Amino acid sequence: xxxxxxxxxxxxxxxxxxxxxxxxxxxxxxxxxxxxxxxxxxxxxxxxxxxxxxxxxxxxxxxxxxxxxxxxxxxxxxxxxxxxxxxxxxxxxxxxxxxxxxxxxxxxxxxxxxxxxxxxxxxxxxxxxxxxxxxxxxxxxxxxxxxxxxxxxxxxxxxxxxxxxxxxxxxxxxxxxxxxxxxxxxxxxxxxxxxxxxxxxxxxxxxxxxxxxxxxxxxxxxxxxxxxxxxxxxxxxxxxxxxxxxxxxxxxxxxxxxxxxxxxxxxxxxxxxxxxxxxxxxxxxxxxxxxxxxxxxxxxxxxxxxxxxxxxxxxxxxxxxxxxxxxxxxxxxxxxxxxxxxxxxxxxxxxxxxxxxxxxxxxxxxxxxxxxxxxxxxxxxxxxxxxxxxxxxxxxxxxxxxxxxxxxxxxxxxxxxxxxxxxxxxxxxxxxxxxxxxxxxxxxxxxxxxxxxxxxxxxxxxxxxxxxxxxxxxxxxxxxxxxxxxxxxxxxxxxxxxxxxxxxxxxxxxxxxxxxxxx
Length: 519
Ligand code: HXC
Known about the structure:
Layout: H1 6-20, H2 24-32, H3 38-45, E1 52-54, E2 78-85, E3 88-95, H4 106-122, E4 126-132, H5 141-157, E5 163-172, H6 177-181, E6 184-188, E7 193-195, H7 199-206, H8 212-216, H9 218-223, E8 230-232, H10 235-246, H11 264-267, H12 274-277, H13 288-295, E9 302-304, E10 312-319, E11 322-329, H14 340-355, E12 360-366, H15 373-377, H16 380-393, E13 398-407, H17 408-413, E14 423-426, E15 431-433, H18 437-444, H19 446-451, H20 455-469, H21 473-479, E16 484-485, H22 491-501
Parallel strand pairs: 3-4, 4-5, 5-6, 5-7, 6-8, 11-12, 12-13, 13-14, 13-15, 14-16
Antiparallel strand pairs: 1-2, 2-3, 9-10, 10-11
Helix pairs in contact: 4-5, 14-16, 18-20
Bound molecules: hexanoyl-coenzyme A (HXC).
Hexanoyl-coenzyme A binds at residues 100-101, 103, 133-137, 144, 147, 170, 172-174, 177, 198.
């Protein structure tokens, strides 16, 4: 810059200092761990040259608390600002592990709160790139207060703007609770981990040895705890994944999700394969993701929480260019039964879609709730109710297609007509009844079966009769609990027209402070 005068000298000196504080040693340390720096990450996340940093020169108080002075650095270990992602406005903060391990002190927290407030005020997504040792020990209670302030703003923004957390290194202690409140958590394999208390504390308190990865790595959180929704192999792909996810989301709860023009070949090719997808043998599994991919626009399905509670499949997709949220039972895993984890997974996704005007599609093939002591003792009653509550409470368009099994309580839960389903369709392969044929026959004909010379043959015969007369879609269709039994090959077109009919759906639940979802 060709400028003169002492005012500009200071301006330029500060810029120089800011650049030199990003020293080669610290950067090398990040890179040697397979991690990028805070600013390299922002360069990938945002469209080229679009990120504008603010508050780059604020610094922490240097008061020595007795545990060492806080290292003074411009920006205090976090970059905040705004920019464009695929041409749409977004706000972000990115923690800089090279400054005191990305730990959160008072100034660092104030910066994050400032950008959170801006994102909410402007109605644009808020993305946190987290790489932090947690509360800055030297700053004591001021750090804890900072976290509380961030959590408060996370909660205020919940359901107003999409909030995404990307774990890019440690997220220790207080650093975990902001992500857990946000809508989607991304992690990177091998280089990111989340825990409330680290391996050292676990050793001290419980005398148990555990590695960082086994305690809170991406594998644990995407498969076992369900904390992480998306996992990628490296940071670049993780950040590209965030950009992709945002293409399905509206900027805020007052807008609709962005639409896409369909290229012609995507509207053709309605797959007759759908007619053959459900096997003749009712106990044979199939992959419900094949159904999703055949019904929705090509390559549009963006699965969420792919590795957690795989008996339910959730994700965004496009139908004729318009975004929908899908909740589908997966017959390939646990026969598609609903259990504690799949119920909470489904419920949270339904709540997100409802908050952000994403219409719901439910693909149903569920034999019932998973039986067992473990499930009952751990509260399947309480957790199963979450899914039920989430459907009944949501006001976005909701359409169910029963592909095969729809038995018992699971029939009610999966967006049945009386739970407020707008359109309820069934394929001819649907089995809708209080329970499956074998179970029903065993109860209804217990005495007769005991007295029979050939109970096996008798049971088989009665089960066939039950299937023909009761466990089919036609009884529900004739009673109006199903709007139409449809040809599987025509499902896509049927859905496109049904969502068109629901485009102006407008309804409000009764006025109240808030409902009391069973948590
Ligand atoms: C101050 C911290 C810090 C912290 C790390 N550093 N964490 N400084 N407060 N919380 C500093 C280190 O002193 C070091 O400074 C630099 O960051 C890099 O840290 P290293 O330990 O050298 O890095 P690494 O080996 O990669 O280990 C990273 C780590 C470890 C696993 C995150 O630093 C660690 O265990 N930190 C503490 C994690 C923790 O228990 N946090 C919970 C805080 S309590 P120098 O000067 O040497 O470079 C909390 C409660 C809030 O958060 C509750 C709210 C609900």
